Amino acid sequence: MFRELPYWKTNLLRHNLDIMHIEKNVFENIFNTIMDVKGKKKDNIKARLDVALFCNRKNMELVCDRSRVVKARASFVLEKNAQLLVYKWLKSLCFPDGHALIISRLVNTEECRLYGMKIHDCHVFMQTLIPLAFRDLLPKGIWDALMEINHFFRDICSSKLNVDHIERLEKNIVETVCKLEMIFPSLFFDLMEHLPVHLSFKVKVGRPVQYRWMYSFERLDIT
Question: What is the reported pTM?
């Protein structure tokens, strides 16, 4: 129906992609996979079977050991002691009033889980905490790729952007997604992991994202 409207062909911003939900889903996929969160990680048996079919990564394929199948730990997954270090660090964090929820209340160090993260808390974690949380725990190539996606979301949410900067973001995010594809298994990449490629164009056409996202309305609903 909308495509038959006269202005549709000239409407450049036909779909306003909501960056806050894209950022939340990208963050959750990254965090849950690196922290090996059961039931939410993207590095599971199905992902390893896909690796054997579609990728040339022998170190990530399932290994048959007599009567059992062994899934070797991937380089992007932290060991248990490293996971515990991250959760203990999160437990000790303090933020200025109103900046984010008290994340320490959401951390369960015994179960190594985060509970009750809101969208804005994922936003803060994605743009501020990811580089600090994993800096000394992940291989440099993986950490560098995470830094690139961190810088992309931070820059795309800036209140002031010039056209040259937006065009650089538009080019760099494609390379960043390709780097992530070389690190994580194919199951990691659902729709949300590819939508960032379109966000730079949306900013160029629709102007800064602060006028188009939903944080202010969600906070009004909470209060």
Answer: 0.84
